[in-house]
Amino acid sequence: MTISWYPGHMRKASKELAKIMRKTHAVIEILDARIPAASSNPLLASIRGQIPCIKVLSKADLADASITRAWRSYFNAQDGCLCLLNGLDNKLSAVDVISAADRLLRHSRDQLPAKRQLVVVGIPNVEKSTLLNQIADRKIAKTGNEPAVTKTQQRVRLDEKWYLVDTPGLLWPKLEDQTGAYRLACTGTIRNTAVEAEDVAWFVAEWLLREHRQALSDRYQLHASIEKPEQLLQSIAESRGCIGKGGRPDWHKTAETLLNDYRSGKLGRFSLEHPPE
Ligand SMILES: Nc1nc2c(ncn2[C@@H]2O[C@H](COP(=O)(O)OP(=O)(O)OP(=O)(O)O)[C@@H](O)[C@H]2O)c(=O)[nH]1
Ligand SMILES: [Mg+2]
To answer: Is the pLDDT score of 277 beyond 90?
Structure first.
């Protein structure tokens, strides 16, 4: 199945984002630490243009720590860019974000107005609103473990100089790279009505069997003979009681079980992407 998801509210949100860029001094682009390449939205790159960017690798608690460090070095080597990590075990504060923005803008300090604006952008469900609440230190924006929770921009004052704007999660009109699209789907970025859970679980099963066989064996007590995705899914259906009418496996429930285990980190901390050499 070809994955594609660009609902009308995203088209509208991208226009609204372009409008506030003129008054924006730095952008905070949130990337999923497990898939920093697939979660880099080309539409956001073009809307941002040359505005300095803090890249935040989010949900770092779910990604491989050493691969995430390599990604941080990769982004820190880019012009006009500074990379920070955020996760349950390493929460960014307003001080971290403001001092990163000040460092990024140190050469143009004299031309900056008294009131400055940071805008949080990124794909859906990547923790933009969570970060806004976290650094404002109060619950302002609605958050939720599903894509497209935020539908409108929301602005909050951080200190006497800095304002922060939360924005709706954005994808782009055509997901040309379907491997990237499947990575987005398996981390929970694409609304579940726009994908088949069984297809996404198959993608995850193939990848885990190839790269993280031991983690699968530990969680599902796999028999050594299991090599193929269909065998893995059959085994999960049996061991987790995902059985439907007539005693046959309920493939949808089986798929959701595997996806939930992966997304919640129960299988381990795994990154799907390495930085380019
Ligand atoms: N593992 C992990 N999950 C997190 C973390 N922060 C947030 N989450 C999860 O990410 C979900 C989505 O967070 P939101 O902040 O609503 O995401 P968003 O980017 O604002 O999403 P949209 O508004 O839909 O674009 C939350 O419900 C949490 O389940 C984190 O540091 N680690
Ligand atoms: Mg949000």
So the answer is: no
117 lines ligand 1 (CB under 6 A): no
- 140 & 238 share domain: no
Report the length, in residues, of the chain.
277
Contacts of 185 (CB under 8 A, 6+ apart): 3, 195, 200, 203
Q: Which residues pair with 111 in a beta bridge?
A: none
Question: Does residue 59 sit in the same domain as residue 159?
Answer: yes
CATH code for position 248: 1.10.1580.10
Q: pLDDT (tens digit, 9 = 90+) per residue, 170-186? A: 999 999 999 999 999 99
Tokens 């109060």, residue located: 138
CA of 58 to the centre of ligand 1 (A): 9
The whole-number average pLDDT for the span 261-267 is 97
pLDDT at 109: 85
Which of 135, 143, 264 is the pocket-test mutation for ligand 1 (most atoms within 8 Å of CB)?
143
